Structures are given as C-alpha cells and as structure tokens.
Amino acid sequence: MITIIPEAPENVAAFNATGEVTKEDFEKLVIPRVKEKVDQFGELNYLLYLDTDLDNFTVGAWLEDLLLGIKNLANWNRAAIVTDKEGVQNFTDIFSVLMPGEFKSFPKENLYNALYWCKNGNEVEA
Predict the structure, then answer these.
(1) In whole angstroms, what is the distance from residue 104 CA to residue 88 CA?
(2) Is the sign of the CA dihedral 97, 40, 83, 62 positive or negative?
(3) In this predicted model, what pLDDT tens digit does every residue of 20-58 receive, in sequence order?
(4) Residue 5, CB half-sphere, CA atoms under 13 Å: how many?
(5) Cα separations (Å) of 93 from 24, 29, 49, 78, 79?
(6) Which InterPro entries would you find in this protein's record (predicted)?
(7) Which residue has the higher pLDDT, 9 or 26?
(8) How far is the C-alpha of 61 from the C-alpha of 41, rounded, in Å?
C-alpha cells in the first residue's frame, strides 16, 4: 500500500510504501499526486519512503513506476529514496547518473533530512 506523507513540504510529492504495493496504488494515488505537483510547480520533487521489501511490489506496480518516470522525464528535479536496504541505496545513486534531475538515497532515520533536501536541494546541517 502507498500513502501520502502528510508532513511533506508543499512542493514535494512524498509517499510511504508498506506491505504489498500494487498498480492501483500508482493509478489512484501516486500518479494523480505527481501530476498535481508538476502542474503546480513545473517540476517534480519526489520522495519514496520504502517501508517494505521490493519483492512486495507487484508487476503492475513496477510497470506504473516505470511509466511514471518516463512520462515525467523532463520534469524530474529531485528524488529521494528513503530505505535501509543497501542495494536500493546503491541503485539510486547509480540511477542518478542516468536520469535528469538529482536522485539521492537516505537511510530511514534521515526522513526529515530527505524531505528538506527534496524541498530545496540542501541537507539539514547538524
């Protein structure tokens, strides 16, 4: 299931993924929210807090995620993936070289730092 992270900054489409993630999650929640943010701000600042294993994403969810990326290719500004899975963190960092915009991984305990970075491109200073 995907839910919206309510404390996200206004210019960030932020989501929490738990349990099984389906095509319907993307169709009913993620895609409309992303479209709303792109229409409002002219760019996409995106955050996904992964509180589930990637194995819990259905094939339909993966396809919708891929289509989301392609449809918004020119709009990506910043995207943060928040997870403690090292493989996902490494993939995100490599992916950032291939896609327009900035992609960055954050450990789960740094959710608010990730939200702040998505909002303005800076990290909170300790």
Answers:
(1) 11
(2) negative
(3) 999 899 889 999 999 999 999 999 999 999 988 877 777
(4) 23
(5) 28, 26, 16, 12, 11
(6) SpoIIAA-like, SpoIIAA-like_sf, STAS_dom_sf
(7) 9
(8) 25
Take residue 62 and report the two structure tokens written for it. Answer: 């993966």
Provide the 10 A C-beta neighbour count for residue 105: 23
The answer to whether the beta carbons of residues 81 and 115 sit under 8 Å apart is no
Which residues partner with 2 through β-bridges? Answer: 17
Which pLDDT belongs to residue 59?
79
| pLDDT, position 96 | 59
Structure tokens given for 91: 């993939």
Segment 88-103, tens digit of pLDDT: 666 666 565 566 678 8
Structure tokens that stand for 28 in this block: 């009913």
69: Cβ contacts below 8 Å, ≥ 6 apart:
76, 99
**Integer-rounded Cα radius of gyration of the chain:** 13
Torsion of CA 108, 49, 103, 65, to 10 degrees: 150
Tokens found for residue 6: 């309510």
